[in-house]
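Customer ticket, subject: "Can you confirm the structure for non-specific serine/threonine protein kinase?"

Message body: Hello, I'm evaluating your service for our small team and ran a test protein. I'd like someone to confirm that this is what the system normally returns, since I don't have a reference to compare against.
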Amino acid sequence: MTDASGALVGGRYRLVELVGQGGMGRVWRGFDETLHREVAVKELLLPADLAEPARRGLIERATAETRAAARLQDPGIVIVHDVVEQDGVPWIVMEYIAGTSLGARLAAQGPLGWRRAAEIGVSVAEALAHAHAAGAVHRDLKPDNVLLAGERTVITDFGIARILDATTRLTSTHAVVGTPQYMSPEQLQGHDVTTASDMWALGATLYAAVEGHPPYDGPTVWAVVAAVVSEPLSAPGDAGPLAGLIASLLDRDPDRRPDARSAARILHELLHPASEPPHPPTVVDAPSDADAEAAAVAGADTVTSVAPESEEALQKAGPGPSRRTVTLGGLGVLAVAAGATVAALVADGQGNPNSRASGGSHPSGGSDSTSPDTLPGYTGKVNSVAFTPDGRTLVAGCDDGKVRLWDVTSRAVVGILVGHTSAVGPVAVSPDGKAVASGSDDTTIRLWSLATRTAFASVSFAADLAHLAFSPDGKTLAATGYLGLVWLYNAADGSAAGQLDAPDVLQYTLAYSPDGKTLATGSLDGKLVLWNTAARNVEATLSPGSSIENVVVAYSPDGRTVASASTPLTDQGLGRTSIQFWNATTHAKTTELLVNPTVYALNAIALSPDGRSAAGAGSEDSGGAGSVLVWDIVTRAVTAVFGAHLGDANSVAFSPDGRTLASASQGAQLWKLP
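Agent reply: Thanks for trying us out. I re-ran your input and got the following:
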């Protein structure tokens, strides 16, 4: 019906003018003769040689899909009024939107600013959240299916892709159903299409909105498919604070993409930022984008029944007193990045101390840096940092009771996990990168999904949390606090899995061996305990020295060495901090290093993925200052000193590729390694 103006469809809908046409259908502006209103009428084109049984099946499929779409009642989704059959094809009658599509807007006027793109994006994400909750997946979201009518943004064509997909299957055309530039890798590869595919499409649509072109393209359909499936993403240059969210949405792992509700929250907070709690007056704010902080608020904990404090209340009250602030330098916050870590910090080969270098060359030849890349969005106290296994995200436990997620490439805040009501101390990332565990001074442990940015388990703990660690197989979460025991939990749901209790040992920090067969714990009273994780008994109890407090422990990546770092107590006060290396099999001490005397405590230690470099985060006796130092384990030379921290350096972690170091102090910092 190519020249059908004036024709009556279904005895009710008068076709007024053709307003759009594609390979699989035509859209008309029409008039409902019964209700006297404008409507949009979509004619689905079926192959002329289609056998009657197949044609009848497609018409029935179209009717079923249209009925499902009609149940979606949301301001951001085009309303479906009716479906009728005429001339052997289905016609879908919808709300008429007097406006233009986002695709047409981009073609005519070029890319949008990030704020306008975010305004459109939040409406689309909210509409997707409604549809996904109802069990509907769009399958072909793209700029051409996003309609702009004044201040209103509306998604059209829900269910159409499923009808067209059925058509291609029946006709054996093997065509790509949808627009491949905006389709997810799993959809293009023929896997199950889930709500996560719509989230990829939202990311691609936002990318196109700010850049003027989709993230992947090519001269042919199959070239586009190959690019989407395998080529690296070119970071958008004009996305501003949207860059982090876009990168998360375009993650090839569907389980890691934010869901629609989380994306809507991020975009909403980006457009309507909340102010941060006041910071100490000694802190110099790093260049930051306040929008980036608010952009990522992922919403309240959806698991526990107790509502978290509001942002306003947190700002007024500030964080409550933390056991962490009165413990020796915050010891026990051990950052584990991409596997096990080993203790090592500043000493030369003879155990001679190295003075702190701040603004000059280091005596041992190490380079000094006073210009960290402080991440924007939060400059309050950060207690712990950890990278996700793919190195794309930095997770941080913050003193304001939140867990923040930064995109390492764009430096944008891409998530804020809200639910704790007091300072967050330790954080840990599961080996598969899908979950984060956080411990708080509110005496709870929360397990969070990185994909949805929501908690899926909350566990009451008997004390302030000191340290958390996932077992290498990801099945168990181990936790220590100030009561001296090790608690074990099932990582899948947070249910209790037992305790480890050594008589007269106040266990405080912990680290799994790479094979998961041994758990090393450091105690508040100067002991290093090695546990058999299968039998849950003590293999060995080692003593790094006499009158030692707060033993920090770690394993080497090959599992052959377990290291401990500690500070002795003497009649004159704190003694010289040292690091001991122990053979994990014979339990014999192999070496000991004395640490620079200006560093009175080690708060965290980490080993590079190749096992050659070690880093330590320390507190200094100069008052309120901290340093992170990097050491070549083979030569025992200090290779870098990062001394620009505005408070104690509380945590340190290597990126999985070993090129970047993250530290926690006043804010979170990223440092490029020499």
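A couple of notes from the result: Residues 333-672 form a domain with the Methylamine Dehydrogenase; Chain H fold (CATH 2.130.10.10). The chain has a mean pLDDT of 78. Feel free to reply with more questions.
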